[in-house]
């Protein structure tokens, strides 16, 4: 008679130690990867493991007592895990969200023009007080645009066009993005933006998700990305930026897959571009943390869409071989019309002893309407190296750029741009 114990299936059979698995280990993908995304990140570990030198996740201790949105369940400034919200986590019926906490005047700092050169304070190119906000942005009057955005957010009753509806999140977030973005373009404005952005609280909380429309986020993507770095600076926690970028990357990967399922090729390209942008921002966050080796490994792991020659030229410049870098920049300038190429070529000319040629190159860029902070800073530095009377050249340069008006890249400048 058969033994029933021998014919019964065994629930837990011990595997012999001498037997090896015949199936190779499956490859894993990080949150910055998609099947054919423009990234091949070497960061295969989750951000918690990446950021901890001991390989252990770090606790999320609140670093600020700044109040969060009234309806937000979050109590910690650290971002919570991105999740798909269902009717079990949100009310069954949609309700209006009250964003009046973002309309308080005490949130926004006053801005002055004390550090603006005299040539930019007066003249025919100065905007009038009633200039529309879009016109201020188009003309590069970022200080005026930041002031106008704050005034619109905090408008009182009886003013024109009047106060904003606290439930009009689209208008509120559009003005808030303009305010924060313009502040980052001003000298010393990033610190103010990092302080003002605290009013938003935890953007990954359920409060900022819509009940309908597949639980879409109420905050526009560009504002969410901008807030990552600003909140990391505001709360004094640079690790927060890397973790938040990874959370956004997971959302972007899910959006790529959803667009592929709908055969929406245009949507796929948009989200792939956003995913690639997040990869570069992760490298920037690692640099700000002081992890230069990690940033370099991460950047070299990205799949470049173009610009390989420019990366090589930057590498030679970083290594200090200015002769080799100069040749690369000259070759690039023949095929690429880019201000950065011209500025780096001028810097190489300075280091190989051809200062006058480098100065002439930078001045030609200004004559063509270019006026970035990097260009002006390097040109004024050459003025300091060429003569003891560099201040007169700097003042003349500031007047020249001011007279360019809307032709200049970002018209409004500060004393720091001209080293005055």
TrEMBL record:
Residues 1-97 are annotated as: Disordered. It comes from the Eukaryota. GO terms for cellular component: Golgi apparatus; TRAPP complex. This is Trafficking protein particle complex subunit 12. Residues 38-66, 73-92 have a biased composition (Low complexity). Transmembrane segments: none annotated. The lineage of its organism: Eukaryota, Fungi, Dikarya, Ascomycota, Pezizomycotina. It comes from Trichocladium antarcticum.
